[in-house]
Amino acid sequence: MKLFECKHTRFIAFFSFVCAYFYYQSAIYQSKKVPVFSPSGNVMVLEREGVSPNHPESHAGVPQVADAHETLTTNVRILRNTSGNATYDQQQKLQLFTIGRAAERIVDKEGRSNNVSVKMDEEAMTSSASVKVDGEARTSSVSVKVDEEARTSSASVKVDEEARISSASVKVNEEPRTSSASVMVKKPRWEFPVLQPSGGTFLKHLNLSTYDRKDRRFLEVRRKLMIRRAETLRQVCTKRPQLAKSSVLHVVWDTKHNVIWCPLHKVASTSWMVNFLRLAHFNDNNTQLASLRPSLRKKMKFTPKYGAKQDKVYELYPGPEDPLVRTQVFKNSLRALVVRHPFTRIISAYRDKMLKMIPRPTEHRFRELQLDIIAKYRKNNTETSVFPTFPEFVQYIIDSTRDLHTASDWVNKVKCWTPYWAHCNVCASDYNIVLKLETLQKDEKFFITLANMTELKKLKSQEWRHLQDGIPSDNLVHKYFKQLSKFQIKQLHSRYHLDFLLFDYKLNKKLLKNAAPE
Predict the structure, then answer these.
(1) What is the pLDDT of residues 461-490, one digit of tens each?
(2) Most buried among 131, 256, 280, 347, by the most CB within 10 A?
(3) Phi/psi at 51 (nearest 5 deg)?
(4) Which of 149, 181, 213 is the last residue of a domain?
(5) Same domain, 255 and 337
(6) The whole model's pTM is what?
(7) Runs of H (alpha helix) within 103-168
(8) CA-to-CA distance for 382 and 363, rounded, in angstroms?
(9) What are 127-130's contacts with CB under 8 Å, separation 24+?
(10) Which domain, by its residues, includes 126?
(11) What does the pLDDT look like over 269-288, one tens digit per residue?
């Protein structure tokens, strides 16, 4: 009998609890304050007075910014008003979770979605969008950085001119307790400013009075030549305004000497990378070098074995972090590059990348390219070389670059023999110092003196690391080009025609006269 009374009592308690629960749910539903999920599961729609589930504000798609924000605001207010205490039961936690889901799909004017990352309390569920509730249930907040500053406001939603959400703040009730949601905006990528060639304006207005008499005399004479080179750039680029576009450049930012340097493959690039390492006093205190005899130490100091790589130069000479400062530095610096006759550069590239079993850098897989060239272009069965011949290499360049027209085409698809105009974006960077390999000794003296690179002025002679086997590639032009047909020479010239014009190089007619038969 006692057992029956015990079970009867439990049944009545359970039945009462179920009735109370459904009554509670019905009351909330009748008051139209129950959060309902859309079929997509992404957007929470709230039925409230004056708003039906079919209202545009509660459609199953993604709401606009104002609608999403209004829904989120209403949910927070309803939850606060219905709870009335500092303790949240499981149902209320579920409602908090639902509110977080409502904040998940706030979008800007252009329809781009932004996720809001929020935390719930220890006993609640976690999601990509939830709400953190503190111990006394005083605050519900969502906080995300906006443009690298944590900005919150009592305003609803602010959208700037570029349609990026700056902040979204929600008032919980009349008390000064807010629940804010701000959306992370990706920092725009900095772009190099477009500087059309000015014809040497910087050099024309250069004040040389601060230099000593001997240096000033040399600078004044050499400056005239540098201005003529800059004027040639201006004339050629003016006729091609389509080239005046911003492009990503891999340059050395030597802010100490006010220099921007654009390295070009196979044009004294390694020599000048070493110069910049020397200016940075690289390896001066390297203990591994200390044990070597002085002559060997000097020789090994700027070798890859001891970290002297091009990537290290870019690491030592980064651009300013502040975008505005970086732009000003680029505009006000000595912008310099070294060029050479395009044909001698092709020969240098061939000797360095096509006549070695393991050409560097290895990540470019030049050995694989060698084998591909041989497989495609070797028609002479008597040729036994394990390396491509010069005519095979040139034919590969002609064919592989036939459909390349823009700077990005060349930069993205060609390694080591990209034209100067494309690699350094010549018509949009106003290079005021153009050094030529053919006159490098005097050109370097002008540049080093002008930039006051004291450490380099003390050197007796510059290192010529672009030479191979001690023979400049210039002396090999006739040897290599007499292997090409007249058609190949003309086609190769057309690929680099703009470089010929920009830097005032000529096509030697003797090369055509001495060309191999077709």
Answers:
(1) 554 444 444 455 567 899 999 999 999 999
(2) 131
(3) -130, 120
(4) 181
(5) yes
(6) 0.64
(7) none
(8) 32
(9) 127/97, 127/100, 127/101, 128/104, 129/100, 129/101, 129/102, 129/103, 129/104, 130/96, 130/97, 130/100
(10) 31-181
(11) 889 999 999 999 999 989 89
